[in-house]
């Protein structure tokens, strides 16, 4: 709802939005060139396996960052436990498909449900906490759920779970893209309804929200459940796409930090900020990624990026493009002056 | 019965480790309002320093503790002065993310320098202990507990009996007022963070004697320190001691409980955390906020 | 029948008794003042009524039903609005959106959609004199304007009772006069009011009755002019020495404050 009262768009912003729209159309349509129909029409291959890998991963982080934005950006509860929802969604699909022989489509329906119920159970005690207490307690959830799963024999313990391979780059790309679109749509709906006003009121001042009639507990828990459902959906798709899940690949705390960084970098609390942050940052991260020493260097890169973002751009890049302040050295200096001693 | 007694003894000795690890964490949180996610990394740097001195130069691990403290003091001072001071007035999330970034960089650098191999510090006297009937008290554990208590005493003395400590407490109580009476905020912040880091370094030196050292071995200590501070209550040295000892007992009893095992130490820390936060948010010894 | 009845309410924080056996009642259409020195428990009392604090003892009745222990948002929807002494605007919203949020959530009857709420916000912003600044972000507002916004947000809930926590503090005489007009005007629309004030002129100017709190206990209750002349009140505010100079009755201490409040009406 903040967008409606933004000053008119600057030329820079228009250019940016236009470019993004063209890129989006390309990303949505390019994979069709790899279908049989596309080949018969004589289209050149616009996409290869790496393209799909990158595009699907980026779409996945769009879901994660947008979902985090609902609880962290709109409601003001900086959750470090969202990765637990991702892992639970992945394990829900994983267990149903690999141990119960459910079809993937059916199993995927439950991927958002289990994390949402889990969010309901932990949300009631955790969302009474504020600031550091909430952040670290939620971090504890993320770590602990992964650890418990890693120790449970029926879930494959540290060996993990293997799912039957489904070979279809297109399927997983479009599934993840649909999930990303859903996440953005849900955020849009929230921003334009009573519910969104309630969440923003809670973020700005919880007691003031309560005395004007916002049922704060209900709203906070509902926001966490929505975030959990979306995150779990992405986890469920990931499980089948990757065909192998264990604690390390579906419960990494780094994912959680990346979601936050994406939302903050792009502009927490806005509709498209997390999307922009996810696309930019994930492309950078994927470029840096690799095994062995390269992995260590990419982690160092992420750490430095965190520091730079936090120190120089606490208001997020989107804020600069949004016309509220200009992307200038002066703005950087001001943000430094406001936060340092 | 004697098995339970043995576990209680081991729990208290393990508690000594948690006291030493959590002291610095609690100081930084209480005074600077920073939950330092790089605290575990500081601990493990201390452990590596002790390991290097022991394995290359044959220095006794207990004698290397002052070196740990000095190196981490310098590192802590530099990090706070150069980086964290710049975001100290930003929303909590930002110091949180920044310290996570610092943690990531330190852990990755340690991986590059030391590889992910397990390292351990095993002096001749490790493994020996004092036998009292059926209960054995390992010497190293006892020494660790003693040093933890000494650290607590030093911290209490610094905070309550020195000029620097008075400055630190003033800054913790009211930043703006402290500045008005002429306290150099940047220096006191950096100093406080440096003391916290130095304590973490000493704790790390002690930890190398108990478990194997890897670059990522420090991570659990951050969550555990948090649990200790929550358990005891924020803001007092005595509360950290009580929280640490109690947490040690809970860990030993929990890990030996049927159905649980060594894989569950984080889950136990978290469970303790949530239970205490839900029922007694000010901690067991803490005052009302 | 009293519209709001507070009976024997006590509240402790750890070892400190913030409120002890506070009793009073407010009739429909009244403007009821609560005064007392700093730390007398005035804000704590409002927090108990609006449901931010649980009371330790006693009962709070509103329009003949007990609201003791209800969560704050339920109490709000029963028609009790409030402001905070230190204003708490929703910083990321505009002035209009702030007021609209009150209308969205606080109105007892039916659910408004954002569009209707924004329209309703305009009518209250008119009333408090913020109409011209409705699209301002909150951070551009001056202190008096922020206080007006605080009132507007509460008014947007269409409350039947408005609890005002020191809305005049920090205002200059002209601004106080404007604020008093606003209070009278809102009251004329049938809104009962309970206001905490330090500015005595406000109490005498608009209140029908006033209650004095001291150390969390009711000291005296009655007509504002009479209350302010009472030596116990002068003593509570200025200390015993001044009271002794001011009048013969210098002996009472907090112990006999209990009777004063309980006897009211």
Number of helices of chain B: 11
Q: Count of DSSP E strands of chain B?
A: 2
Order of helices and strands of chain B: HHHHEEHHHHHHH
Q: What does the overall shape of chain A look like?
A: globular
Number of helices of chain A: 17
Describe the structure.
The complex is a heterotrimer of chains A (about 350), B (about 290) and C (about 260). Chain A has about 350 residues and is mostly helical. Chain A has helices at about 10-30, 35-40, 50-75, 80-100, 105-110, 115-125, 130-150, 170-190, 195-205, 205-210, 215-240, 245-250, 255-265, 275-290, 290-310, 315-320, 330-340; strands at about 160, 245. The longest helix of chain A is centred in the C-terminal third of the chain and has 27 residues, at about 215-240. Chain B has helices spanning about 1-30, 40-55, 65-80, 90-115, 140-160, 165-175, 175-180, 185-205, 220-230, 235-255, 265-280, and strands at about 130, 135-140. Chain B is globular and about 60 Å long. Chain B is built from 11 helices and 2 strands. In chain B, strand 1 and strand 2 form a beta hairpin. The longest helix of chain B is centred in the N-terminal third of the chain and has 31 residues, at about 1-30. Chain B has one domain (about 1-220). Chain C folds into 2 domains: about 1-80 and about 160-265, 3-Layer(aba) Sandwich (Rossmann fold); about 85-160, no CATH class. Chain C is about 40% helix and about 20% strand. Chain C contains 11 helices and 10 strands. In chain C, helix 3 packs parallel to helix 5 (about 145-155) and helix 9 packs antiparallel against helix 10 (about 240-245).
